[in-house]
Amino acid sequence: MTDLFPAPPVPRVPVRGGGTFPVRRIFCVGRNFADHAREMGATAPASRDERGQPTFFHKPADAIVVDGTDVPYPPGTRDLHHEVELVAALGHDAPAGPLDAAQAQALVIAYGVGLDLTRRDLQGAAKAKGLPWDTGKGFDHSAPISELVPAAEVGELAPRTLTLAINDQVRQHSALSNLIWDVPEIVQELSRLYALKAGDLIFMGTPAGVAALLPGDRFTASLDGVVELRGTIVG
Q1: 3-state secondary structure labels for all residues of the chain
Q2: What is the pLDDT of residues 12-42, one digit of tens each?
Q3: Is residue 228 part of a domain?
Q4: Domain assignment present for 131
Q5: What is the CATH number of the domain that holds 207?
Q6: pTM listed for this prediction
Q7: What is the mean pLDDT of residues 112-129?
C-alpha cells in the first residue's frame, strides 16, 4: 500500500562516540525532587515509605531540539518556564513481566541532560480546573536535549549534579541523590504501565528553581563532568 504522503523522519539524538539514538517515545516524571514539589504547592514525601506513586506525562518524540539549536518561544503562552532534567535513554526492549532493579537498569544505555520546557500559564489554568495539562507540556520544541553519553562512561549517578544557568546566572542546581525515585525505580514503574522499547527517553524530573524564559535568553544545562546542553530562546 502506498503512503498518502512521505513519512516524517524519525527524530534522532547524537551519541558520543558515534551514531544516533532514534527516539520512539518521551516519558517525563513529575515532582521527582521534593524541593520542586514544594515550590509548586504540592506535598513532598517525608520518607521513602511515603512516596506513593510517581507522576508521569508525555511529550511527542519530535519535540526534541538537539544541542546548540535555537529554541523558538512557543505560541499561546506568556509564561514559558525552564526545568532542567537528567535524561535516561533505553537501548533495549523490556522483557515481559515485572522487572527487578537490575533488569530495569540494564535497559538504560545512555544518559543526557535536557530541558522540560513548560507553558506554565496553560498548565496552571488546566490544573485549576482539574483538566489534563498536555498543552502545557507536550508542545513543539519543548524537549531540548544534549548528546547522549554511554552509561558506562557516566558511572554512578548519585554523586553527580544537575545545573542550569540562564545568561550565565545559575538558577537550578541539585545533586541527583535528591531524586525521590531513581532511574531503575522509574523504569520499573513505567514497565508496569507501558511496553518499554529501545528508543524511549525518560526525563527524570527537575529540582527547585524553575522560572521564566524570555526571547534572547541563553541557557546552559549540565550534568557535571559528563555533558552540557546549550541553546538560545528566540522570538
Answers
A1: CCCCCCCCCCCEEEECCCCEEECCEEEEEECCEHHHHHHCCCCCCCCHHHCCCCEEEEECHHHEEECCCCEECCCCCCCEECCEEEEEEECCCCCCCCCCHHHHHHCEEEEEEEECCEEHHHHHHHHHCCCCCHHHHCCCCCEEECCEEEHHHHCCCCCCEEEEEECCEEEEEEEHHHECCCHHHHHHHHHCCCCCCCCEEEECCCCCCCCECCCCCEEEEEECCCEEEEEEEEC
A2: 999 999 999 999 999 999 989 876 567 656 6
A3: yes
A4: yes
A5: 3.90.850.10
A6: 0.95
A7: 97
